[in-house]
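User: I'm new to structure prediction. If I give you an amino acid sequence, what do you actually give back? Let's try with this one:
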Amino acid sequence: MRLRGHHLFCTALFSGHGYSETFTEKMTHLTKQLRAGEKLTVIVGADEVCAACPNRTSEGGCALSSEDVEKRDRAALRVLRLAPAEELTWEEAKSRLSRLTEQEFQAVCGGCRWQEEGLCSLFLLRQAVSNEN
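Assistant: Good question. You get back a string of structure tokens that encode the predicted 3D arrangement of the chain. For your 133 residues, that looks like this:
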């Protein structure tokens, strides 16, 4: 599975909410695949989550702000100490996510719609990755 950097955070925190019914169904399927052991490859650019997003433009960008998405991806790679094309398991991703500081978390997720709606926080992220064990 190919996931962009900040979608590691979104996938860990996914709780059944999404931009549309199709998007939510796709995220549910992807999270089940990861938890079942499918390896993931971290990429830069549109990924499997983006494929079902109603905000995806015909050019593959984000109608809400490609610049914002790319900034979050760069921050995610930096704080998780990952490189584009790096492969890891969901267990390895959870381990990296569990060690984040508040400042690192905010560098990726600060100001995000889902955080503003109360569906995303460092506390919830830590809870999500520890409850899967």
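You can read the tokens as a compact description of the fold. Here is one thing that stands out. The chain has one domain: 2-131.
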